[in-house]
Amino acid sequence: MPRGPYTGAEVKLWAAKSTALSCENLVLALRAHGYDSCMMEGFDEVRVRKLLKLDDAAFPITVVGAGERAAGGVFWPQLRFERELFVREL
């Protein structure tokens, strides 16, 4: 017996969660094929709707940037710590 979603707010929450899970799979698949990607929140919804020609009822949840990694794509030197400082085997 289904237990929801019943209200518009519950449907919107369900859609947001499902989309987030789908985006995670997309990001993992992109990496498996040699591409880098980044899921982004906090974008300008109005501009995304305009760019994609969506109506006001559309509910953009996330933006995923994807592409090939540039050879010099790291902006600053990476700092690595010894594994033993963080991983303790019992």
Structural summary, described in words:
The protein is an alpha+beta fold and 90 residues long. It contains two helices and two strands; from the N terminus they run αβαβ. The longest helix has 25 residues, at 8-32. The chain is extended and about 50 Å long. The model has no long low-confidence stretch (mean pLDDT 87).
Helix content: 25-40%
Q: Please work out how many helical segments DSSP would assign.
A: 2
How is the biggest beta sheet arranged? 2 strands, antiparallel
Quote the beta fraction: 5-15%
How would you classify the helix and strand content by structural class?
alpha+beta
Order of helices and strands: HEHE
Q: Average pLDDT value?
A: 87
Q: State the total count of DSSP E strands.
A: 2
Spans of at least 5 consecutive residues whose pLDDT stays below 50 are none
From the alpha carbons, calculate the radius of gyration and give it in angstroms. Answer: 19 Å
The gross shape turns out to be extended
Cross-sheet strand order for the largest sheet: 1-2
Cα(first) to Cα(last) distance is 45 Å
Tags for this entry?
alpha+beta, 90 residues, 2 helices, extended, two-stranded antiparallel ribbon, 2 strands
